[in-house]
Write a structure and sequence with these properties.
This protein has helices at about 40-45, 60-70, and strands spanning about 1-5, 10-15, 20-25, 30-35, 50-55, 75-79. By secondary structure, the chain is an alpha/beta fold.
Length: about 80
């Protein structure tokens, strides 16, 4: 199983239940934002996209989302 996660700049990554994270394409089901506003939240919610706020670097944010979505994964493997 995998989940597509995106950043506001358009980058999309696939997070797999094995802990593998790789660049991907498609419409993400989770978007990582640095700052949340009511407008952003309403926009993403209207499209059925979950919002994850993270102020760390890209890899750290992806690792945090991976651990929330797949708590059984203890380590990440960037592919």
């Amino acid at each position: 199983m995998n989940v597509l996660v995106g950043f506001e700049d358009g980058q999309v990554f696939s997070l797999e239940d094995t802990g593998v994270i790789r660049r991907s394409s498609g419409l993400p089901s989770v978007i990582i934002v640095r700052e949340i506003t009511r407008e952003k939240l309403q926009d993403y919610a209207s499209r059925g996209v979950k919002v994850f706020v993270c102020n760390s670097d890209e890899k750290e944010c992806l690792s945090q989302v991976l651990n929330k979505v797949f708590p059984q994964c203890k380590t990440c493997k960037f592919a």
